[in-house]
Structures are given as structure tokens and as C-alpha cells.
Amino acid sequence: VSAAPDPWAALRAHTAARIALGRAGVSLPTAEWLRFAQAHALARDAVHTAFDSVALSSQLALQGFDSTVVESAAADRATYLRRPDLGRRLSPRSAALLANGPPAAGAEADRANNGGVAVVVADGLSAQAAQRHALPLLLDLRARLAAPATAAALKLGPVLLAHQARVALGDEAGGLLQARAVLVLIGERPGLSSPDSLGAYLTWAPQPGRSDAERNCVSNIRPEGLPYSEAAHKIAWLLGAALRLGGTGVALKDESDSSALPAALSPLKVTR
Amino acid sequence: MTLLGAAGVNFIMGVPGADDIMLNYQSTSFHDAAVLRELLGLKRAPEFEAWLAQVGITGDDGRLLQAPARHALLTDLSGLAGRP
Description:
The complex is a heterodimer.
Chain A: H1 30-48, H2 53-62, E1 67-71, H3 77-82, H4 84-87, H5 92-99, H6 106-113, E2 117-122, H7 127-145, H8 148-151, E3 156-163, H9 169-176, E4 181-187, E5 198-204, E6 215-221, H10 228-245, H11 256-259, H12 267-271
Parallel strand pairs in A: 1-3, 2-3, 2-4
Antiparallel strand pairs in A: 4-5, 5-6
Helix pairs in contact in A: 7-10
Chain B: H1 2-6, E1 19-20, E2 25-26, H2 30-40, H3 46-54, H4 72-75
């Protein structure tokens, strides 16, 4: 059976969604079936690829970010995937390390971090996402937070690079660092079209036991999704709003888009 | 999915190419649903079947037709596709 051309084909220019695939009989043409299998393989590989924290630490250092490598209580990838609870806690070694202050940062940086925004770059379910997108995002975010109004209260870092980590690991790490807030940049569960999507989770006054309702999330950060500059704009806006509100989560609504619009064009003004 | 179809399940998800691009979920696709119908001789809900025939997506036998370029559901899309 030969595949019939799809009359929607021109619409594919507008989206990475799998539309206008054509059909052979009523099923997928072979080429599309192969692309699907390849995307599935890339997603699986993304889950199992190890986080190269040494390389990322070097890249961060070149840009003036001190970083410290930590790991969760999940000893390896197989354990991490089967035991979400272990991925949310630091290993005893890492907990002791942070309780004494991150050694890579030194005493001066430790004081600066106290009350600042701790950053956890975590492999999550796609180390590729952390590897590729965390640094360019942090560079953009640091520049935005350098404004006089926020520079003192919302100083970034030092940065923790966390292996086998889930979002809530930031609660324990941020608590030990006595951070004002913790920003967890973590590889999201890979999709068929997005093996390297980065998520950013912001939690005010981190401590073990925080619920997901106490966080704000900016999702799908990657050049093909939410570009770095737009993601950094949202995170900086959320940090500023969290500072005024004294918290994150369901009480903090992301209005970064509407605040960027002139008042007359704001959709909120129209509906109120 | 074939097992579920043979067991008589009467609802499966359909997303383009089995790829929920917004939520990063994998699901079943429109193609999968069509394959399952052909494989197992399954009918659609009668009113949906009638509507599909009425707008020219399926023929009298309930099978998908090849869509001509001038199909009524496609003519409004030419502007979106960037063609005059």
C-alpha cells in the first residue's frame, strides 16, 4: 500500500506536533512510523543518560557561578526510577556537606547565600535538559536580578548540581543553606518531541515537607519551547512577586505576561 | 490497544501521532483508532458515523475516504498554510 499525500502537509510548518502524517490504508506511513520509534528511543535515552556535573561545574565556573555537587539518597538510576521518595532526600554525605556550608563556595559566598536564592540544577528525568539549558537560563536570570530593587534580596547561588534528584530535594537543600527561596532547575519527563525540556520550580522558605501547592513552576524551557529570555523573565517576575508576598504557590499567580503589556491592552483589565 | 479493542473497550484517546505535545504524554492516535475499527469491524456511534459521511470524511461503507485537495473542510485552511 502506498502512502497518500496529506492535504494538511503545509500546516506542519507551524508546529512540531505530529499532524498531517498521511496514511497508508488507515495506518501510519512507514517513514512516520520510523520517526515515531526514533523519538521514543530518544526519550528513553534521555531518561537514562547520566548527568555530567563535572563538565557543567566547569562551564558554570567560567561564568562566575560557584557550584557544589550533591546527590540524593537514591544511589543509582535504577533505584531513582523506582523510589521517588529517595530522590526527594539528600544522601547523608550531601546533607552533612550542606549543613556545614558548601565547601566550594567558601565562607564569603556562604554568607552571601544566606537569605538569597539557592539554585539546584537537577538531572530529574532528563539530564540532557539540565546539561544544555541551566547555564544559559541562569546567565539571563542573573542579569535580570541585578536590578537595584532586587539585587540585595534575591542574590542567586551558589549552585548545587544534584544527581538522581526530584523537585522536593530542593526543600531539604534550601533549608540547610538557610536560603530565602530555592529555585530547582530540573529535567522534565521527556516527551516524544522534547527529550530535553527543563522545568523551573520556585519554593519560598524551603524546608522538608513543603507541598507542591507551595511552589510555582515554569515549564518546557528550551529553545524550541519557552526560550531562555522568556523563562528568565517569568522566573524573575515570580521571584519579585514572591518577595513582596512572602511566599510562593497557589497564592502567587503568574501575571508576568499581563504586567508586561500596556495597561490598556491587559486582558485582566478587560475582564475586571 | 488491540487487546482492549478485542475485549470490547468503547473509549480510547485519540491525539495526532500518539504524541500529546503539550503535556509530553504518549497516548493512542487517530490512526490507531482507525486501524482498530478496520481490524475488528467496529462501528462508530451512529450519529457520529452519519456526520462523518455527511461531511465527506467516510464513504457509505464507513471507511475513510482519500481527502481531495478541494474538500470542504480544507478550503478554509489555505490561508493558515501560507498559500493564497
